[in-house]
Amino acid sequence: MRKIIRALLAGYGAKKIGGGCGCFGIIIVFIILWWLLSYLGI
Length: 42
Description:
Blueprint: H1 2-18, H2 22-40
Helix pairs in contact: 1-2
């Protein structure tokens, strides 16, 4: 359940932050957000 919530939050953030950077930018932002959320324990 935690991974699903983390994926949803990272996906939403990647779309908002990296939306103008193209597909590659969204993937990079998603990976960074995924790592940050796991570091915070979410």
